[in-house]
Amino acid sequence: MTLFDDFIVLAALAGIGVAIAAAPLGCFVVWRRMAYFGDATAHASILGVALALTFDTSILAGVLVTALLMAGTISALSDRGYAMDTLLGVMAHSALALGLVAVSFLRDVRVDLMAYLFGDILAVSLTDIAVVWIGAALVLVILWWRWSSLLTATLNPELARASGIAPHREQLVLTLALAIVVAVAIKVVGVLLITAMLLIPAATARTFSNTPERMAVMAALVGTLSVLGGLLMSFRLDTPTGPTIVAMGTGLFLGASLITFLRRSTS
């Protein structure tokens, strides 16, 4: 195997791991209209990177803890009457700004901000891949374990309460899963593109799905195709890999939307 084959295969494995974890979770983000929530959690991860470097601890742990704290703060403030869209907008941009300012104070630490903002999938190591796939497996186990309760709480909170399911608890489960995805995806696609990996495959899969389970599987497939197609296009065109993967996903979304439009026009 050549050196080229090595890093392309590693990049593909890392990207597929993120796609498999993010896509089913992205379905819940779409159903619950939580796009801003995903943004706020992802943007907070830059602050987590800065804190981890400051205290010389694991970046994965720093990002995970910060993402969970951000999610907990949003949940607590939303219960006090703040408008959710305003609150999420303020928290998302504030966390990103604070993180970038904090990184600027790290004089003795060399930080590649572009890698954290847009990802550096071509530089992943075997350790990174192990972290991604362990995180993906954990997210899938959480979703499998809580699937029925999460779905009921998402589609009909009143029915969930009547069935003994606490919607707030299921929200916390989703928050935990989202924090894990952000923590493992930051090296692959970066802070600014994580939400795109959550939303675009799920939105594309919605066109071809008539059940929640089918949508989750289709979203994972779309995410995987976006990763593989984006890697190939990035190599061919010499473009940034993370953004190219998202661009490929956008192309699939536009194609799905066109198919839906043509179906409706001919029916």
Automatic annotation (TrEMBL):
<feature type="transmembrane region" description="Helical">
    <location>
        <begin position="176"/>
        <end position="203"/>
    </location>
</feature>
<feature type="transmembrane region" description="Helical">
    <location>
        <begin position="6"/>
        <end position="31"/>
    </location>
</feature>
<comment type="function">
    <text>Involved in the high-affinity zinc uptake transport system.</text>
</comment>
<dbReference type="GO" id="GO:0043190">
    <property type="term" value="C:ATP-binding cassette (ABC) transporter complex"/>
</dbReference>
<feature type="transmembrane region" description="Helical">
    <location>
        <begin position="43"/>
        <end position="74"/>
    </location>
</feature>
<feature type="transmembrane region" description="Helical">
    <location>
        <begin position="215"/>
        <end position="235"/>
    </location>
</feature>
<keyword id="KW-0812">Transmembrane</keyword>
<feature type="transmembrane region" description="Helical">
    <location>
        <begin position="86"/>
        <end position="106"/>
    </location>
</feature>
<dbReference type="GO" id="GO:0055085">
    <property type="term" value="P:transmembrane transport"/>
</dbReference>
<keyword id="KW-0813">Transport</keyword>
<keyword id="KW-0406">Ion transport</keyword>
<keyword id="KW-0864">Zinc transport</keyword>
<feature type="transmembrane region" description="Helical">
    <location>
        <begin position="113"/>
        <end position="145"/>
    </location>
</feature>
<dbReference type="GO" id="GO:0010043">
    <property type="term" value="P:response to zinc ion"/>
</dbReference>
<protein>
    <recommendedName>
        <fullName>High-affinity zinc uptake system membrane protein ZnuB</fullName>
    </recommendedName>
</protein>
<keyword id="KW-0472">Membrane</keyword>
<dbReference type="InterPro" id="IPR001626">
    <property type="entry name" value="ABC_TroCD"/>
</dbReference>
<dbReference type="Pfam" id="PF00950">
    <property type="entry name" value="ABC-3"/>
</dbReference>
<feature type="transmembrane region" description="Helical">
    <location>
        <begin position="241"/>
        <end position="262"/>
    </location>
</feature>
<keyword id="KW-1003">Cell membrane</keyword>
<dbReference type="InterPro" id="IPR037294">
    <property type="entry name" value="ABC_BtuC-like"/>
</dbReference>
<keyword id="KW-1133">Transmembrane helix</keyword>
<dbReference type="GO" id="GO:0006829">
    <property type="term" value="P:zinc ion transport"/>
</dbReference>
<comment type="similarity">
    <text>Belongs to the ABC-3 integral membrane protein family.</text>
</comment>
<keyword id="KW-0862">Zinc</keyword>
